[in-house]
Here is the input.
Amino acid sequence: MSDTRQKRSDAITKGPAKAPARAMLRAAGYDDKDFAQPMIAVVNTWSTVTPCNMHLADLAEPVREGVRAGGATPIDFNTIVVSDGITMGGEGMRASLISREVIADSIELAVRGHSLDAAIIMVGCDKTLPAAAMALARMDIPGVIFYGGTIMPGRCKGRDLSIQDVFEAVGAHASGDISDAELDEIERHACPGAGACGGQFTANTMAMALTFLGLAPMGAGDPPAIDGAKADEAERCGKLVADLVQRGTTARAFVTEASLRNAATAVVASGGSTNAVLHFAAIAAEAGVPFSIDLFDELSRITPVITDLKPGGQFLAKDLFEAGGMALFGKRLMDAGRLSDAPTVSGQTLFEELSAAVETPGQKVVRSVDAPIKKTGGLRVLYGDMAPEGAVLKTAGYSDGSFEGRARVFDGEEAAFKAVSQNDIKEGDVVVIRYEGPKGGPGMREMLAVTAAVAGQGLAGKVALITDGRFSGASHGFVIGHVAPEAANGGPIALIKDGDVIRINAEDRRIDADIDWTARRAAFKPRAPNRMGGAFDKYAKLVSSASKGAVTITHDTDQ
Here is the structure.
């Protein structure tokens, strides 16, 4: 694939002045042929801390083989991962969203620092996926994102399990519905090996989104982590990134208003994670593409849910793969006129990819738009007294209508989880968890421990939960996150007190409280920041509102 065109990597490989750089590269095993070819970063988020990413080291070699077969030179780098599932419910979860920025920054620094021509980014756990897209969009270089795939389901007492079941079992255990031994058995059987959490949680939601965005090739993310086809897909992705360099096609060719709408449609129609709202805003900002979180509300009102996937449904990602994969799901949307054709990193257009979909006879995972699981999507963007800059409602199979109840206010997740664990939350309550926003946390923790405990007590949909933090993709129930402005910035959520009547109306896009806001504001005393030092304090100082993606770099296109 070598040619005489100028390459970015010429900055470290060409000319007498670059003899020292070449000497260092030769010591690392590269030669004249490698210097003549495009040099492609193979960025890996491999780690032994989480099943989501622990297999990516093995998949790196077929990626490299694909790059070499495409006439390019692979150069390996690593970046970090923070496991959402492991850190959930603790102080470590504050690092999760912050890691998205660190991952994107580290990819940029490695690629730009070494003047590399392109990048293929290997991802697994939640924040590695949007971070990869942010980095490619920011640098606007040729790039492909390769998703390591879903975990297989666990199995216990004749039913499939995911990590969602473990969190909900904690709630059932707290309420006395299951024993210590039953909880232990679920824990030991839920996660059988490598792969990202198995439902349409954040990782699988974003893997689907990045495919419909065009940055990941259709079909590459579908096979489970341990499936034999995964290595073949890894090699294919390596060849594709080399081909993108040959064609001179960069990431921003794929991240457009049209492709963002396609990807958001996929999120809504699959019952995906609310975290996509946050990540889309960040990716669009990096690409310089206008974007409003209101798109999710617009689409959710007109787009049915056509997959029966957890957390709101009954199937897992491996079931979607066996049914016909993302292509089958997308073909249903395409045939109903819900998508626009757009280019993808495969070299084919989205519609060309979807037209090749093959449905497994008798599959029950994917419905048609005319006979959906749910007539409207499960995401709403609300405004009103409590959220002047917006908040995100996830109904996940529960009522899209209204909810009214008295506030139970908690300053932080731990206090709320304690109340739930002590069976102190009752049907009709509106649980408010504040000072968990991007700045106030810092880090905007996910509240899966709380929502799962509520669900485990049979209260999902019977109580409402509101936070300036986030909810996991595995959360389900009547949950509202991303409330902005956040409490740490003096947002209205900081003024709510126990017993206040809160009204939620999804149809009118409102979340309001019957209080004298002027009097509350006059009596309000700001809370001291939660200083944690280091990267946490730096993030708190730089981070934007959740309504703008909770990014740390200001862009001219920020809404």
Observations:
- The mean pLDDT is 94.
